[in-house]
Structure formats: C-alpha cells, structure tokens
Amino acid sequence: MPKASLQAYRSMQMTATDAGNAATTISVSGERVVGGRPAGCPSSFCGCGASLRVFGRVVPELNLASNWLRFPRAAPAPGMVAARRGHVFVLEQHLGGDTWMAYDANSGGRATRIHARSLRGYTVVNPHG
Q1: Backbone angles phi and psi of 111, in degrees to 5
Q2: DSSP the chain
Q3: Which of 103, 102, 106, 115 shows the shortest CA–CA distance to 32?
Q4: CB atoms within 10 A of CB 7
Q5: Tens-of-pLDDT digits for all 129 residues of the chain?
Q6: Cβ distance 105 to 38 under 8 Å?
C-alpha cells in the first residue's frame, strides 16, 4: 500500500483495548486541521488555544500547560481538559476506552487539530469547577 494511502487508512481506524485487553476497532472521521497558532498566543500555544476554546478568550496564566493542573480533577466528559506538564487539549467526544476526539492546539507542525487522542498520561480537569 503506498505511503499516502496507508496514512489515510490509519487516520480512519484505530484499535482501543479495555482493561481486559479486548481489542475493538473504532472508525473515526479522520483528523482535521482547523488552524494554526491563534492570534495573540505565544509560540508554545496549546494552553492559549485551549483557553480560547473553553473560555472564548486568551487567559494569559493558562498559556503554561501545567497551570491547567490547578483546576479540580474531573471524570472525562465533553468540555473537560486533559492536562500534563507540557501539553493540554480539550475533550470533545468520547470514542471508546481512553480515546477521545479532542481539540488539540499546537498538536504538531504548528497546527491546531481535531483528532483522536488517548488520555493516557494526562490528568482530566474541570476548567469550570
């Protein structure tokens, strides 16, 4: 399979496993690049992009990804934020297991994407709590 076709196939399917290691293939609508660095955001812009998505404005103290960890812990749900030192993204829709469709600013190549992301290694917080 040519490389471009393989990449397109991988963006349309993923495998999720539950705690018992049962594998399930999930079809996703593919990732979408929805923009680049938003105006007014610093060069490392995941926190800034997340604050624009959640609050509709830049919240300067949330430009630093680790500052999102100050919000109360929460169960994964749409509108919650997955945070760790160095990166944050906003949960949009549950796909299965620990995988969510996410609004992910600065997700690589200076792009903002909506794509499937695992919560593994992240703490879910409630930015409204």
Answers
A1: -110, 155
A2: --HHHHHHHHHHEEEEE-TT--EEEEE----EEEESSPTT--SS-HHHHHHHHHHSS--GGGGSGGGGGGSPB----TT-EEEETTEEEEEEEEEETTEEEEEETT-STT-EEEEEEE-TT-EEE-TT-
A3: 115
A4: 11
A5: 443 433 433 344 444 444 444 443 344 456 788 777 888 898 899 999 999 999 999 999 999 999 999 999 999 999 999 999 999 999 999 999 999 999 999 988 888 999 999 999 999 999 998
A6: yes
Residue linked to tokens 């792009």: 111
Tokens of 119: 């919560």
